[in-house]
Every structure is written in C-alpha cells, then in structure tokens.
Amino acid sequence: MERPSAALVRIVPFYYGWWVVIAAGTIILIAGESPIYLFSTLVDPLEEEFGWSRAAISAGPSIAAVMAGLATPVAGYLVDRVGARRLLLAGVTLVGGGFLAISQVQALWQFYISASVIAIGMSLASVPVCAVAVAHWFVKRRGRALGIVSGGAGATGIMVLLVALLIAFFDWRTGLMILGIGQLATCIPLALTVRHRPQEVGLLPDGETPALGEPLGNSPPKPQERGGSRGMGQPEGRTVGQALHTRSFWLLASALVLTWVGSFAVIIHVIAYLDESGGFTEEGAAVIAMGIPFGSLVGRLGFGWLADYLNKRRLLAVAFLLQGLGILIFAAVHSPWQAVVFLVVFTPGWGGAVPVVPALLAEYFGLRALGGIQGMLLAIAMLGAIIGPIFAGGVYDVMDSYRPAFVLLALTAVTGAVVILMMGRRPTWTGDVVAAPTT
Questions:
Q1: Whole-number Å distance between alpha carbons of 315 and 194
Q2: Measured between alpha carbons, how far is 224 from 433 in angstroms, rounded to an integer?
Q3: What number of CA atoms fall less than 13 Å from residue 285's CA on the CB side?
Q4: From CA 70, how far away is CA 230, in angstroms rounded?
Q5: Is residue 186 over pLDDT 50?
Q6: Per-residue confidence at 432, pLDDT binned at 50, 70, 90?
Q7: Which of 23, 28, 198, 418 could form a disulfide with 190 if both were Cys (CB 3.0 to 4.6 A apart)?
Q8: Which domain holds residue 90?
Q9: Exposure of 185 by Cβ count < 10 A (0-12 exposed, 13-18 middle, 19+ buried)?
Q10: 343: nearest Cα among 314, 320, 322, 357
Q11: Residue 251 falls within a domain, yes or no?
Q12: Which residues contact 399 (CB under 8 A, 6 or more apart)?
C-alpha cells in the first residue's frame, strides 16, 4: 500500500518543497501572523463597549507578546525534534479557538487570557516554525523560498481589511466568530500536508537529482544540507548553548529588541493613532493598517531574493534603518498622502527583515539547532513587542498624543541598524559536527 507521503508527492505536479512553501505561507496568512495586525481593529470597539483605557487594551497584545516570548523557544526546540506539521496543527487550533473565545469576552481578564491563547498558537504556526521547515527543503534557493513563505505574513493586510469589514457589516463579536471558524476550516487541512524535510518523501533539497549511487529516502543528507530531526541525519552547526555564548547572537538579539519596540507600537496603535490625528475616516485608517503587511510583501520578496546574493548582515541593517525612518515619518502624519509615504518607507524594511533573519541565522549558526536558536532569539526580541505598545498607549493616556512616543521609538530602531553592523563576519563552524548518538 502506498504511503500517504508518497501519494502527496505524486499529486503535486512540481517539486514538493514549493508546495510546503505554499501551504505554510497560506497558514501564516490566515492564522500565523494576522493576529498581530488584527488587534488594531479591536481597540475602538472594545473602548466603546467596555470603556477600557487604550493602555489597558494595549496590554492585551503586550501580555500576549509575553506568552509568545515564552512559547517561541519551546516551539523552536520542538520543531527541531518533531517537525513542523504537528506544531502547525496545534497552532492553528489555538489561534482559531482563541478568536472564538475573544468573541465571547465580558471582562478584561478574559480578553487577556484569550489573547494569550492566540499568542501561543501563533508561536506554533507562524514564520519561525515554517522557516525551519523551508530551510531544510532549500539550500541554493533558501533566501527566495523564505521570502515567499514569509509573504504570507505580508498578505495579512487582506485579513485586516476583511475583519474590519466584518466588524462594520455585522459587529465585532460576530466578525471574530466568522474569523475563528474560517481559520480552523482552512488551516487544519493545509497543515496536514506539510513535511519537515525532503528526505521524508524520498527527495533532495532544491529538487536536485541524486548523484550516481546516492540513496534517497531517509538517508543522511550531504553536509551542506544537514539539519533537522533526531534520526534524520546528524545536523551541522552550533547547538543552542554554543550560539548563546557568541557575541553575534546577542548583538542580533539586541538589534531586534531595539527595532521591535517601535515597529510593534506602530502596528498595534496605527488605527487609533490615525483616528486621533485627523484627516482619516475609520475605514481609511483601516486601509492604512492593511497597507502595512500588504506593503511588506515588497520587502519580504525583494530582500529574500537579495539574501541569496548579497551580505545578509548589511541587508538586515538596511531593513532596520527603513523601519526607523518610517516610524519617524509616521510621527508626523496628518494627511493620507503622508501616510502613503510612511508605508513606502516603513513596510519594505518591516517585511524585508523577516526572511533575512532566519537566512542569517542559518549562515552564522547552521541548521543543527536552527529552530531552537531562532526560538531563543525571538523570545528575547519579544521584549520590544511587549514594551512598545504599552509605552505608546501610556504616552497617549498622559499627553493625549502618540507623537512624542513615536519620535523616540524611531531613534531606537535606527540604533538597532547600527548594532547589527557590529556582528562582524560569520564565525567559523563548518565541519564542527558531533558524532550522531547511537541507538
């Protein structure tokens, strides 16, 4: 009887690694990354219905960021061992269930718990987990593949507009119920088709033909292709512990924290900020919010493609610099044309960093523990996602304006661009392979 994995490969008329990219990217679009942006559509409805302050509402996604920060290294550890499919299944279930729970909240603590459930689900079903699987399916085209899969996050602008329309046409509770049911119905079947490594289905990375006499199936991969789950060949590169003892890891983590403080503050408060700045209708503000992830597609695809040819560290510095300049422009927005300029500058940098970070990690630390290293990195970076929205909301509550907060946060992002350049050249680890454990 034919194995299910073999049947999947026969059904897909092209290299199955690209199907993994498509399925994972769609999951990211619908459930893995969209909650980051969808919280901005809830600020005004929650304030109107319950009278909660904006700082209190902003604490919801910030608490969720804490939970995501705790869950991310666990997800990274698990994806190196059990593969992406199981984590994606668990993640999309939690995200869909979390939105169904938010649609029924009656108290602030219920909102916080529901947001935390969504955050844990996102940690299991977003770009970091998918990027580890994609990194195993591609070597020569890794940057491009990572750019395409992260494009699912860029297209989440469609989800922002969809949810905004659902809330306007029905109400926020009904809109979130429709969202949660749709996420579960679409993403669970897709997650079942994802495979973590090409060797699981008798293929090689990049769809290459094996050399004469080279076995297929679950045979150990070539050194440059190594990485993955226990029992699937000994991976090459650094362990999590070894990475944590390097200067490069901590410089990269510090740069991400400095940049995320401002970027997440903008993402969470964009609709509320544009509403109070004047010159925007509620629907117009939602369109600008949609433009952030949608505009980031240019950066995700463009920077991902460039990462296969140019210095990844410098590319990441450019991405951070664009984010800082974009936030500075955002602090001065008073009219729609200024908001468009903000999108043109900010979104390529915001999106461009997404595929470059895992590509840079693979270059500096290898595939041996890519999921675990990436998980630790993003857990630390979550400090920025926690602090930024609360800080911006608190400044608004005190000063009745977001602008002073965004000016300061723009400077922190530019500082992150400087810090990333201090990483230096890639450390030498090639050939540093520990013998595989005997079983």
A1: 30
A2: 12
A3: 26
A4: 24
A5: yes
A6: very low
A7: 23
A8: 11-194+237-423
A9: exposed
A10: 322
A11: yes
A12: none
One-letter identity of residue 326? G
Residue 385 token pair:
């996602």
pLDDT band (50, 70, 90) for residue 325: very high
What percent of the chain shows pLDDT beyond 90?
Answer: 12
Q: What whole-number distance in Å separates Cα of residue 136 and Cα of residue 10?
A: 20
Confidence of residue 435 (pLDDT cuts 50, 70, 90): very low
Give me the number of domains the chain comprises: 1
Q: Residue 92 — very low, low, confident or very high, per pLDDT cuts 50/70/90?
A: very high
- Measured between alpha carbons, how far is 320 from 323 in angstroms, rounded to an integer? 5
Residue 36 lies in a domain: yes
d(CA 11, CA 307): 31
- Phi, psi (deg, nearest 5) at residue 237: 130, -165
- Does any domain span residue 210? no
User: 311 lies in a domain?
Assistant: yes
CATH code, 320: 1.20.1250.20
Interval 274-284: pLDDT, tens = 877 666 767 67
Q: CA angle, 63 as apex, 51 and 355 as ends, to 5°?
A: 120
